Amino acid sequence: MLVPDPKTVRRLLTRYATLRIAQAERHSPVAARELEDITYTLCVMTGTAGIREAVTRADALLAQEQTAPAGRTTDPDGEKGRCLTV
Protein backbone atom coordinates (compact mmCIF):
# COMPACT_ATOMS: atom_id res chain seq x y z
CA MET A 1 0.00 0.00 0.00
CA LEU A 2 1.24 3.49 -0.82
CA VAL A 3 1.62 5.78 2.16
CA PRO A 4 1.50 9.54 1.58
CA ASP A 5 4.31 11.74 2.84
CA PRO A 6 3.38 12.85 6.39
CA LYS A 7 4.71 16.37 5.78
CA THR A 8 2.39 16.77 2.81
CA VAL A 9 -0.55 15.39 4.77
CA ARG A 10 0.15 17.79 7.64
CA ARG A 11 0.38 20.73 5.23
CA LEU A 12 -2.91 19.78 3.57
CA LEU A 13 -4.70 19.34 6.90
CA THR A 14 -3.48 22.74 8.04
CA ARG A 15 -4.61 24.39 4.82
CA TYR A 16 -7.97 22.59 5.01
CA ALA A 17 -8.58 23.86 8.56
CA THR A 18 -7.52 27.41 7.64
CA LEU A 19 -9.88 27.48 4.65
CA ARG A 20 -12.79 26.09 6.67
CA ILE A 21 -12.34 28.84 9.25
CA ALA A 22 -12.03 31.52 6.55
CA GLN A 23 -15.20 30.28 4.84
CA ALA A 24 -17.11 30.27 8.13
CA GLU A 25 -16.11 33.88 8.76
CA ARG A 26 -16.77 35.17 5.26
CA HIS A 27 -17.57 33.25 2.08
CA SER A 28 -15.14 33.66 -0.79
CA PRO A 29 -15.55 31.91 -4.17
CA VAL A 30 -11.77 31.61 -4.54
CA ALA A 31 -11.36 30.07 -1.08
CA ALA A 32 -14.35 27.79 -1.72
CA ARG A 33 -12.69 26.42 -4.86
CA GLU A 34 -9.39 25.88 -3.06
CA LEU A 35 -11.25 24.14 -0.23
CA GLU A 36 -12.85 21.79 -2.79
CA ASP A 37 -9.41 21.05 -4.26
CA ILE A 38 -7.84 20.37 -0.86
CA THR A 39 -10.80 18.18 0.13
CA TYR A 40 -10.45 16.13 -3.06
CA THR A 41 -6.69 15.78 -2.61
CA LEU A 42 -7.01 14.62 1.01
CA CYS A 43 -9.62 12.04 -0.01
CA VAL A 44 -7.41 10.71 -2.81
CA MET A 45 -4.29 10.60 -0.63
CA THR A 46 -6.08 8.68 2.11
CA GLY A 47 -8.16 6.46 -0.17
CA THR A 48 -11.47 7.69 1.22
CA ALA A 49 -14.72 8.95 -0.24
CA GLY A 50 -15.47 11.69 2.28
CA ILE A 51 -13.60 14.41 4.11
CA ARG A 52 -14.47 13.20 7.62
CA GLU A 53 -12.94 9.80 6.95
CA ALA A 54 -10.00 11.44 5.16
CA VAL A 55 -9.23 13.63 8.16
CA THR A 56 -9.53 10.62 10.50
CA ARG A 57 -7.10 8.58 8.38
CA ALA A 58 -4.73 11.51 7.99
CA ASP A 59 -4.68 12.01 11.76
CA ALA A 60 -3.98 8.28 12.22
CA LEU A 61 -1.13 8.46 9.70
CA LEU A 62 0.43 11.39 11.54
CA ALA A 63 0.02 9.67 14.91
CA GLN A 64 1.66 6.53 13.48
CA GLU A 65 4.57 8.62 12.18
CA GLN A 66 5.17 10.03 15.67
CA THR A 67 5.33 6.55 17.20
CA ALA A 68 7.58 5.04 14.50
CA PRO A 69 11.08 4.09 15.70
CA ALA A 70 13.71 6.74 15.01
CA GLY A 71 16.00 6.05 12.08
CA ARG A 72 13.63 3.64 10.36
CA THR A 73 14.59 3.52 6.69
CA THR A 74 12.43 0.65 5.45
CA ASP A 75 8.66 0.78 5.18
CA PRO A 76 6.44 -2.30 5.78
CA ASP A 77 6.63 -3.26 2.09
CA GLY A 78 10.43 -3.25 2.16
CA GLU A 79 10.92 -0.06 0.16
CA LYS A 80 13.92 1.93 1.33
CA GLY A 81 13.80 5.70 1.59
CA ARG A 82 11.06 6.23 -0.99
CA CYS A 83 8.28 8.68 -0.24
CA LEU A 84 5.34 9.03 -2.58
CA THR A 85 3.59 12.35 -2.64
CA VAL A 86 0.47 13.21 -4.59
Automatic annotation (TrEMBL):
Domain of life where this protein originates: Bacteria
Organism: Streptomyces hirsutus
Composition bias, Basic and acidic residues: 74-86
Protein known as: DUF5133 domain-containing protein
Stretch list, region Disordered: 66-86
